[in-house]
Amino acid sequence: MSKKIVLAYSGGLDTTVLIPWLKENYSDSEIIAVCVDVGQGKETEGLEQKAIKTGAAKCIIKDVRDEFVTDYIYPMLKADAVYEDQYLLGTSIARPLIAKVLVDVALEENADYICHGATGKGNDQIRFELTVKALAPQINIIAPWRIWDIKSREEEIEYLEKRGIEVPMKKGDSYSRDRNLWHLSHEGLELEIPENEANFEKLLQLSVSPEAAPDKPTYVELEFEKGIPVALDGQKLSPLDIINKLNELGGQNGVGIIDIVENRVVGMKSRGVYETPGGTILYAAHRNLEYLCLDKQTTAFKEIVRVKMAELIYSGEWFTPLREALSAFVDSTQQTVTGKVKLKLYKGNIIPAGSESKYSLYNEKLASFTTGDLFSHHDAEGFINLFGLPLKVRALMKQNL
Amino acid sequence: MSKKIVLAYSGGLDTTVLIPWLKENYSDSEIIAVCVDVGQGKETEGLEQKAIKTGAAKCIIKDVRDEFVTDYIYPMLKADAVYEDQYLLGTSIARPLIAKVLVDVALEENADYICHGATGKGNDQIRFELTVKALAPQINIIAPWRIWDIKSREEEIEYLEKRGIEVPMKKGDSYSRDRNLWHLSHEGLELEIPENEANFEKLLQLSVSPEAAPDKPTYVELEFEKGIPVALDGQKLSPLDIINKLNELGGQNGVGIIDIVENRVVGMKSRGVYETPGGTILYAAHRNLEYLCLDKQTTAFKEIVRVKMAELIYSGEWFTPLREALSAFVDSTQQTVTGKVKLKLYKGNIIPAGSESKYSLYNEKLASFTTGDLFSHHDAEGFINLFGLPLKVRALMKQNL
Amino acid sequence: MSKKIVLAYSGGLDTTVLIPWLKENYSDSEIIAVCVDVGQGKETEGLEQKAIKTGAAKCIIKDVRDEFVTDYIYPMLKADAVYEDQYLLGTSIARPLIAKVLVDVALEENADYICHGATGKGNDQIRFELTVKALAPQINIIAPWRIWDIKSREEEIEYLEKRGIEVPMKKGDSYSRDRNLWHLSHEGLELEIPENEANFEKLLQLSVSPEAAPDKPTYVELEFEKGIPVALDGQKLSPLDIINKLNELGGQNGVGIIDIVENRVVGMKSRGVYETPGGTILYAAHRNLEYLCLDKQTTAFKEIVRVKMAELIYSGEWFTPLREALSAFVDSTQQTVTGKVKLKLYKGNIIPAGSESKYSLYNEKLASFTTGDLFSHHDAEGFINLFGLPLKVRALMKQNL
Amino acid sequence: MSKKIVLAYSGGLDTTVLIPWLKENYSDSEIIAVCVDVGQGKETEGLEQKAIKTGAAKCIIKDVRDEFVTDYIYPMLKADAVYEDQYLLGTSIARPLIAKVLVDVALEENADYICHGATGKGNDQIRFELTVKALAPQINIIAPWRIWDIKSREEEIEYLEKRGIEVPMKKGDSYSRDRNLWHLSHEGLELEIPENEANFEKLLQLSVSPEAAPDKPTYVELEFEKGIPVALDGQKLSPLDIINKLNELGGQNGVGIIDIVENRVVGMKSRGVYETPGGTILYAAHRNLEYLCLDKQTTAFKEIVRVKMAELIYSGEWFTPLREALSAFVDSTQQTVTGKVKLKLYKGNIIPAGSESKYSLYNEKLASFTTGDLFSHHDAEGFINLFGLPLKVRALMKQNL
Question: Does domain D179-356 have CATH number 3.40.50.10420?
Answer without folding.
Answer: no
